[in-house]
């Protein structure tokens, strides 16, 4: 598994990013990532009476769904701004600031662990996955979601295709692990198995991001993203305009009969048993 070559700088970059865009992430990405919740609960085998940990909790949607199933939920995130949003959204759960790579819990503490799109944002994904394995009770399941790799037919393919054509991917940002290193089923499976999980299963979740106008994808990235946002902002103004023009043109393939733009944003949900 790839990890950051400068973990301190990358963590500080991610932390500053999430502190800045936590509200925008909830507004824009929350409509999308909520669609992954049912598959995550099924993969983690969430049931009544269980103690559940939601790592990289974000707005708290997984913790809220676990509560609705009768479980007890603890959510953890390294961003204080994110934690404030989660506490507002899910007053029945416990939330605390913490590091996914050094979970502040004893071994064998939780019946299930979930991590929604979190392992693509940490400096050392293997350390984070190993920590989740450590705090799971024997027989418990971890469920983790990641984005599908960029393709011409999905949103990330449109975004990064435009950046590659008109922009520069080699910009001065702290080095982070490949954002899409787990975006193929066999790679996500290998990551789970490398951290000691058994009975690993991978499910592809088809989901779409409904936006009201062709520039909606750009707006969502600029107001609710971290790495992609920084990559766009690092381009010159002329280059950024060319990128945005290509994205707006490419959005026409996703124009639906109701007038919205439904951008395919498939996810992979991996699960494994301790």
How would you portray this structure in words?
- The chain is of the alpha/beta class and 274 residues long.
- The protein has a domain of 187 residues: Rossmann fold (3-Layer(aba) Sandwich).
- Helix content is 42%, strand content 21%.
- It has 11 helices and 9 strands.
- The strands form 2 sheets. The protein has a 7-stranded mixed beta sheet with strand order 3-2-1-4-5-9-6, sandwiched between helices.
- α1 runs parallel beside α5, α1 packs across α9 and α7 runs antiparallel to α11.
- It is globular and about 55 Å long.
- The relative contact order is 0.17.
- The model has no long low-confidence stretch (mean pLDDT 96).
Task: Briefly summarize what is shown.
With 274 residues, the chain is an alpha/beta fold. The mean pLDDT is 96.
Q: What's the topology here?
A:
Layout: H1 7-28, H2 30-33, H3 37-44, E1 51-55, H4 61-68, E2 72-77, H5 80-89, E3 94-97, E4 110-116, H6 125-135, E5 136-147, H7 155-166, H8 185-194, E6 198-205, E7 208-211, H9 216-224, H10 227-233, H11 237-250, E8 261-264, E9 267-273
> Percent of residues in helical segments?
40-55%
**What gyration radius follows from the Cα positions, in whole Å?**
18 Å
Distance between the termini: 20 Å
Q: What is the averaged pLDDT score?
A: 96
- The CATH class label of the domain at 7-149 and 176-210 and 265-273 is Alpha Beta
- Strand percentage lies at 15-25%
Q: Count every helix, treating DSSP H or I runs of 4 or more residues as helices.
A: 11
Uncertain regions spanning at least 5 consecutive residues? none
| Tally of DSSP β-strands | 9
The name of the CATH superfamily of the domain at 7-149 and 176-210 and 265-273 reads Vaccinia Virus protein VP39
Anisotropy-based shape: globular
The ordered H/E elements are HHHEHEHEEHEHHEEHHHEE
For this structure, the CATH topology of the domain at 7-149 and 176-210 and 265-273 is Rossmann fold
Strand order of the largest sheet: 3-2-1-4-5-9-6
Class derived from helix and strand content: alpha/beta
CATH architecture of the domain at 7-149 and 176-210 and 265-273: 3-Layer(aba) Sandwich
The biggest sheet, with number of strands, parallel, antiparallel or mixed sense and barrel status, is: 7 strands, mixed
